[in-house]
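Fill-in record for Type II secretion system protein I.
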Amino acid sequence: MADRAIRSRGFTLIEMMVALAVFALAALALIRLEGATIRGAGILDSTLTGQIVARNVAIEAVTDAKPPTLGLASGTEQNGGKAWTWTRTVAATGDSRILKIDVTVSDSDGRPAGRLTMIRSGSGS
């Protein structure tokens, strides 16, 4: 009886190995989740900054006293320590007094990061 009481105290080696394996699987899952979260934060930062650049370019075209010329224009802007490439397309609408302005922004690798469409008066007022 005394021998049985001694063996029932504590965990067996197999129980410890199973517990360690379960812990290792949980730790690996948490590490993968953290990696995905960090990647998501980087994408969010790039998208947000791209949208800011798109808004800045579009606002320049909308608030300028002279309406932008029809067609395609492109350039680069520095924002957040990065170079952003933008393309602005100005097109006429069904109403000759209104222009449609589309702005697309790409990061330095050419990946699209932001897009914005605005309208403005085509008469300059």
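KEY FINDING: Helices lie at 2-7, 13-63.
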